[in-house]
Amino acid sequence: MRRYTKPAVVVTALGALSLAVLGSGAAVAAGTADGSTGPGSPSRVTAESASWNHGITQVNKRIVQRYTSEYLPGRDPALASKFVSPDIVVHFGGQTWQGRDTYLGIVAANLKAFPDLKWTVQDMRAEGDTVAVRYTMTGTHKGPFAGVEVTGKAIRSESMAFYRLSHGLIVEERAQLDMLGILRQMGAIPTA
Questions:
Q1: In this predicted model, what pLDDT tens digit does every residue of 59-85 receive, in sequence order?
Q2: CB pairs under 8 A, 24+ apart, for 178-185?
Q3: pLDDT by residue (tens digit) across 102-114?
Q4: Contact, 9 vs 33, CB < 8 A?
Q5: pTM, to two decimals
Q6: What are the backbone angles phi and psi of residue 24, rounded to the nearest 5°?
Q7: Nearest CA to 47 among 11, 22, 79, 81?
């Protein structure tokens, strides 16, 4: 790993962090790696754009990290408002739902079916306004789920979701749950 110790590079890195937290005024104060500070400098515009995109990407990733570590395990609907937009759009299984209340209803139904449901993040990647999460779900089937009555069987599923953020809130989720694997583990579909 290459370490940068030049003051201009350090200032640019700090500028990117400040930009993410404080807005574009911090980037103007930070300057650029080549030392140009004029508002019309082409390299300044490029550096500001790269810093802005990197900063927003990192902020979005941190929000989703907090969402998966604070809201999902705690299951507190009031906490959802810190992370989920009132107008969230959820895409799953060929269907689309909209609204935080609808989203909370889906989460509540899953928790009723699997009261001990646990999400464990395996991998997280961020680019621009989107954060991709690969996770493992484990739980015990103790309530109706996908038309299947209680079986008492333990399930384990590796799945993924793509979260799009705007203004610090999740505005869209595209979930890919391993439904076939879950239904097989519950005994609803015979294994091959």
A1: 999 999 999 988 887 778 888 899 999
A2: 179/93, 179/146, 181/155, 181/157, 182/145, 182/146, 182/155, 182/157, 183/146, 183/148, 185/153, 185/154, 185/155, 185/156, 185/157
A3: 999 998 999 999 9
A4: yes
A5: 0.71
A6: -65, -20
A7: 11
